[in-house]
Please model this.
Amino acid sequence: MVEKEARRCPGDKYTITVSICRARQKRRYPKCGVCEYREIELTPAELESRSIRPEIFKGYDVRGIYPDELNEIAARRIGSAFAQFLKQQKGIVKNIVVGKDMRKSSTPLAHSLMEGITSSGVNVIDIGTVSTETVNFTVANFGYDGGVAVTASHNPAAYNGFKFCREQAIPVGSDTGLSRVQELARLPSPRRMEPLGRVIQKDVLEDYKKHIQKFARQIKPLRLVVDAGNGMAGKMVPLVFQGLPCEIIPLYFELDGSFPNHEADPLKVENLRALQEKVRETRAHLGAAFDGDADRCTFVDEKGEAVKPDLITALIAREFLLHERGATIIYDLRSSWAVREEILINGGVPCRERVGHAFIKATMREKNAVFGGELSGHYYFRDNYYADSGIIALIQVLNILSRKSVSMSNLVAPLKKYFSTGEMNFTVEDKDGKLQRLAEAFPDGKIDYVDGVTVEYKDWWFNCRKSQTEPRLRLNIEGKNRDLVETAMKKITGIIKDTR
Model:
């Protein structure tokens, strides 16, 4: 007798017969634990071994080592859970955008994620291999219900993960729905909906390019070195710069999720060395380095010197305030005093916010802020649906260089008013206890608890905050001179490292 029904294991592209399916269940095939065709109940021990590991759910995304911590089984369940979450929030959910980065594991994870979404009766808009900001753009520009970027951003090659957003590219983090997605993903898999959702391929690159190029204002012929770190900027930068008069000198534009040249984390000094050398060698006007999913960008000047991201925030803020005096600018509380001062001098309204894209984006929407920046190299734009974009930040810097006709180092020099440590990390188990001791140690300072503990004096300040994902404290200190900062650092680090 010929079997009429064909089945498919989660994450597989090919179908199998019912007989093969049942035989796999008897052998306890690994994917049976989350399959809608499962007929044999698993033991509690088996269910536990197949459960989604809670540690992959971070403050702002899902992230873990593939396949030990995050695999196709988890991806399918998370896809289904995200569709369920959106339905609980909105009622009717029709389309969820999915894009992926260049990592080898991104294709199988994306395929399984899409299976989970479509099993919930929701269509997938598959936009292929793109940057994270392209997913945000697609969701907001075309009015879709949500989106998922399959990426581990700047993490090493062994990692992968998911970044989520709702309609209008509103981020989904632990405080805004990701905890609920985790709960739903860990429940028994729901039966698939009928009819299933469809996977619809959509090419959005031309629309994305037109959107980004709207930010360009009479850019002059400039030479710049771009280090894509073998990440998604290697695809997106050549696309966006088509028709612009810049000469792009590429570094590591080949898409390679094994990152053969260096980690795609531009905040690490060692990852900027090749860019700095190339800028000096080619006498370029500017250098830019992107992270793996190309939503973050850092800069070096024409001398090959790294420019702190908060000073870039000040430069771009000034540019926006030329065209919209009185506008609100958001900056994270680790940023230099120079950022607030630059906003005020140029007639803007400064707004200090806690660290993290979910908080920055929410405050930008609330205050209709034109621009926001973080010390991490994330830059946010009202006219980009309040979302971050490393490439728009690069365009804005080129706008400034073109209008000013001066070097990048000369633009930045007036903003280097203070001495800062940069962010330092300390492994600490009792994070709350240490923060309390720090607050008590500086009773005569101006103290706030917006994000961790910030203590401010007339000549210096510090912020110490908890990591959202690790047993660590993160410390930033800034002052009017090196001696002030070094004295403060000795006292503060002594408290943090004290084992009593």
Summary: The first helix runs from residue 18 to 26.
